[in-house]
Amino acid sequence: EVQLVQSGAEVKEPGESLKISCQGFEYSFTDYWIGWVRQMPGRGLEWMGLIYPGDSDTIYSPSFQGHVTISADKSISTAYLQWNSLKASDSAIYYCARRVSGNYDYWGQGTLVTVSS
Amino acid sequence: KFMLTQPHSVSESPGKTVIISCTGSGGSIASNYVQWYQQRPGSAPTTVIYEDYLRPSEVPDRFSGSIDSSSNSASLTISGLKTEDEADYYCQSYDNNNRDVFGTGTKVTVL
Predict the structure, then answer these.
(1) B7 touches chain A (CB under 8 A)
(2) Cβ of A102 and B101 within 8 Å?
(3) B41 near A CB under 8 A
(4) Which of B35, B49, B45 is nearest to B92 (CA)?
């Protein structure tokens, strides 16, 4: 069965860096786009960007470009979402999901990121 | 900028039908596929409709999707409403640069 398994919850202070991961199982990781989605507490889904692990082609939402970096290591079927300097407003649940013809058909379990001093 | 707007909430009694709208602005909603996701509290979203009207095999046929080009909107219809349908629902599509967008989300309450 296709699975996306995300890294565990993180608690960080403002200004710290962070890299969270999303590992794919039971499918050809290099053949499908992976998207990242933010959900702030009590709020809706926000699309952050996409990566194609086969060649690391990346597309960002203008709302997130410059503040996060999306990358992938196809040798270990893992995509990443990275911050160089976290803000309190980055506190949210972050989901990765596999994209097929515009549809996100499999989702990770989500990673809770808490940024607080 | 392509945006999708949904009603904040809808509510109806068990057995009834609810229709959730998803209105596009800044582009034609008919240009690219629309998906609908269900999200229950504490869980990741799951697809209930993809490619405008297709339904994953595990989703009951009480769920249906449609596109209305004249109003630049998509709709999710849930018929024979059940208590288990109580959740948040999001539409999603993308622009011609493959930038995705999610709708604002609709909370469905089963009275």
Answers:
(1) no
(2) no
(3) no
(4) B35
Cα distance between residue B51 and residue B34, in whole Å: 6
Q: B64-109, pLDDT tens digit by residue?
A: 999 999 999 999 999 999 999 999 999 999 998 889 999 999 999 9
**How far is the C-alpha of B4 from the C-alpha of A26, rounded, in Å?**
33
Return the structure tokens found at B103. Answer: 């709708």
| Partner-chain contact B102 A101, CB within 8 Å | no
User: Tokens 């109806």, residue?
Assistant: B12
Rounded to whole angstroms, the Cα distance separating A45 from A61 reads 13
Distance from CA of B100 to the nearest CA of A (A): 6
> Strands, E, within A1-117: which ranges?
3-6, 10-12, 18-25, 33-39, 45-52, 57-60, 69-73, 78-83, 92-100, 103-107, 111-115
User: Would the CB atoms of B33 and A103 count as touching at under 8 Å?
Assistant: yes
